[in-house]
Amino acid sequence: DIKKVPNVYSARKDREGPDDEDDPDYLISAIPEDTLHIPYKPLRRSTEEVIQRSREYYDLMATRRTVRSFSTEPIPPEVLENIIKTAGTSPSGAHTEPWTFVVVQDPNVKEAIRNIVEEEEDLNYARRMSRQWVADLKPFATNASKPYLCDAPALILVFRQTHSMREDGKKRMHYYNEISVAIAAGILLTAVQYCGLVALTSTPLNCNARLRDLLSRPSNERLELLLPIGRPHPDATVPDLERKRLDRIMIKV
Ligand code: IYR
Hints:
The chain is α+β, with helices and mostly antiparallel strands. The chain has helices spanning 8-14, 47-62, 77-87, 107-128, 131-136, 148-151, 177-195, 208-214, 246-249; strands at 99-104, 154-161, 163-165, 171-173, 198-199, 221-230. The protein contains nine helices and six strands. The longest helix has 22 residues, at 107-128. The N and C termini lie far apart (45 Å). The protein binds 3-iodo-tyrosine. The site of 3-iodo-tyrosine has 8 residues, from loops. 3-iodo-tyrosine (IYR) is lined by residues 121, 137, 140, 142, 202-205.
């Protein structure tokens, strides 16, 4: 039976790797193969301190909320730099660091972003999202109007690099780039929370190409998230939601 003959060519295609992997120049890693392994001895904390810190960090994160109404108060430049540096500490597949964070503060660019997002969101809410989806969003009181894109002092646009280019001009694989960028975004949100600011985790549907062009990002980058950052508007409200209890999200084995 011919179907039982293993097909090496199709097996090859399923493997994660560049197209011309058989080129001998390829089998050099982007990070030097002889990279030293050095001792890692972070401060050792007592068990009591570990328990205390786990409680404190939970208490801090439990107050995080997505906010949709922002004060225009500016963010000190160092804060923006530090939260992006923190996001950049994220683990990534083969240490490829497949993220780009575009921080927009220029009012004209914020307005251009708002125009693109509102234009697409008009179509999203009217046509692209299912009626069920729109119904599921009712409790959050969202709609196609996005004044926060101009009000928030900074917008952080999180781009995912699908691959990059090595110095020898060959393609560098970005393994697990989706989950790597998702983890980095999570760390960014915790950094925002820790310093006492708020964010809106937004995922503008169908805006990738237009925002990528507006911000002159290359075609190997894809917009994953648009995060307005700042202080909440004094009159900001949030839906009165509950989070799943521990016994619904943790299974001990
Ligand atoms: N991107 C749209 C719609 C939206 C979708 C989900 I899922 C949300 O949790 C919230 C909003 C918007 O920003 O309005």
